[in-house]
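Quick start: read one record
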Amino acid sequence: MDTIASLFSFITTPVSWVIVQFHKVYGAIFGADTGWAWGLSIVSLVILIRICLIPLFVKQIKATRAMQTLQPEMKKIQERYKNDKQRQSEEMMKLYKETGTNPLSSCLPILAQSPFFFALYHVLNGIATGKTIGVINEPLLASARKAHIFGAPLAAKFTDSSEKVAQLGASLTDVRVVTAIMIVLMSASQFYTQRQLMTKNVDTTVKTPFMQQQKMLMYVFPVMFAVFGINFPVGVLVYWLTTNVWTMGQQMYVIHNNPTPGSKAQAAYLERLAKHVTHHGKVRRRSERTIVKAIVVKGRDRNEFERKFINGLSKAGLAAQADGTVVKSESAVAVEVQDDGTPTTGGAAVKRQQPKRQTKAQRQSGSVKAAGESEPTTSLTKSEAPEDAKPAAAEKGAAKPGSGTRSKAQSGQRKGPQRPKSPSKK
């Protein structure tokens, strides 16, 4: 134990210093020897560490999505070189190099906070054994040994004997009840975090072994936390429970605002975004413009939810641009010009209405009315025509039979003399 502690001495001293600084602040509020002062110091340490690890968390998200995208290609390589493991490994490394992905990037946050976890474990173990460590001197050590969280000392464990717990000024029942509740909460938060990732933020269009591995880890991790948790001091359980709750909240935020393409979370996000854009007529946030830009760039490679989003904008008379903005489409403008300023709902095109079908009585009354209106016009035209114009026209149009002169052919008649029509029989 001393050898391991010496290996982590480079991180143990900074961790103990941070805890002492937070303890000074909370000790002035709640009292130096209270469990609130020491417990909140550990919680503040976790929050500080996780804030520093946010860039790694973002990198983890990108790496995880890149690995999900590569799963079909990885499966093809495994099937193609299933009998040649060396060639399979070479092709995998080549694929990672070409795409710029790293399978270990998804583990970066866990690996990065592991030194802090071990450093805190050794600090609390030193408090339990009565040894000073880092910047924690004798007065601080005595104060920490008096601190209890709901009746359980910071350095107590579930597996400690009643004598050891009595030396810390507590009962074995209180220690085991408090540690059991914290272990259950720690395992439940880990399970919910993993389940949330699998049910909402995984591309459901691609079935790969990666998804099966994630489902297996969803059940394995909580069991591991429960098994190892009985050997953790109460202070370490506070640390791990706090970091699990932080991870759960951080993941909920990411799933809500930046979901994985093809997942159920993306369907819900695009539905909310479509309502927002349709109502306001524009994209206001930078993160939303980034997502719209990525959808436009995909073109024909869009998934079902992305196509539904683009079609919804088109129905609303809007069009997504390559820079992530949204403008009114040309069809909406044409409708507005044709309707002479008639307002449309959300800029959508107005459907052409079909005329109402008339009954037989209405059609007959309409035809009679039209005929009645046309008769005065016809009679007026005939009455207005001069009477002596008709004989003139008849004489002019008549041709003498047998004459050699040829009249000009009227339209639709042959040139030359026309054959007289036979008289009609009465």
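The first helix runs from residue 2 to 7.
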